[in-house]
Design brief:
Largest interface: A-B, 26 and 27 residues
Strand content of chain B: over 45%
Radius of gyration of chain B: 13 Å
Number of helices of chain A: 0
Number of strands of chain B: 11
Structural class of chain A: mainly beta
Number of strands of chain A: 11
Radius of gyration of chain A: 13 Å
Oligomer: heterodimer
Number of helices of chain B: 0
Helix content of chain B: under 10%
Order of helices and strands of chain A: EEEEEEEEEEE
Mean pLDDT of chain B: 95
Shape of chain B: globular
Distance between the termini of chain B: 38 Å
Shape of chain A: globular
Helix content of chain A: under 10%
Largest sheet of chain B: 6 strands, mixed
């Protein structure tokens, strides 16, 4: 596709439940990034992929967060046992290459509300 | 500790005048600086970037200035148009990992 597609747009989970977010990057883009935006503040880097391989996961909370990008499937970000502080908008972005001047295209985000 | 700071949460500018958005950073290892624009309920869209080896980059109505000694960059929009009303995020990245480190954003309001 010509745009990064994120589903669902909104997700409500009770504390302790699992949340799974999906991202279809732009066709032909090799890199996928996940960012978390809490309370309309700055975006926090979570993880990046080069094709199906994890490129950089230094932003991922170790215990409850996991992510995958499998061939011929949307990428996914999964949060096990959600907590109230996981409430945020999660943005996915993709880019053709990796570089400081390379434009990353963002999806519309998934708003996760943990109640 | 915030590595990228946008100290003005909002800015109001008359249509047709110049908008100047500011950004400060603390990490001298950043190699690239980028500006993104975001409308409500949408993802950010890339505007313009600058390498740390340059001090100015221009693209149409948008110019970014970088002052490395002051660890400061600014985005100039001239002339400002109503469609420029949005939240502008400054971001920076080192070549070591290309993680984008973001500021908290400045909401720009263009008054008719």
């Amino acid at each position: 596709g010509e745009e990064v597609a994120q589903t669902p747009k909104h997700l409500v989970r009770g504390e302790g439940q699992k949340a799974k977010l999906y991202c279809a990057p732009i066709k032909g883009h090799s890199y996928v990034f996940w960012y978390q935006q809490v309370l309309k503040n700055e975006f926090k880097f979570l993880i990046s992929f080069q094709n199906e391989n994890v490129f950089d996961e230094t932003g991922m909370p170790k215990e409850r967060f996991s992510a995958k990008c499998l061939p011929n499937s949307p990428c996914s970000l999964e949060i096990q046992a959600t907590k109230l502080e996981d409430s945020a908008v999660y943005f996915c972005a993709s880019s053709q290459w990796l570089g400081g001047n390379t434009e990353a295209f963002f999806g519309q985000g998934t708003r996760l509300t943990v109640v | 500790d915030q590595q990228v700071k946008q100290n003005s949460p909002s800015l109001s500018v008359q249509e047709g005048r110049i908008s100047i958005l500011n950004c400060d950073y603390t990490n001298s290892m950043f190699d690239y600086f980028l500006w993104y624009k975001k409308y409500p309920a949408e993802g950010p869209t890339f505007l313009i970037s600058i390498s740390s080896i340059k001090d100015k980059n221009e693209d149409g109505r948008f110019t970014v200035f970088l002052n490395k000694s002051a660890k400061h960059l600014s985005l100039h929009i001239v002339p400002s148009q109503p469609g420029d009303s949005a939240v502008y995020f400054c971001a920076a990245t080192p070549e070591s990992n290309y993680q984008l480190i973001w500021g908290a954003g400045t909401k720009l309001i263009i008054k008719p």
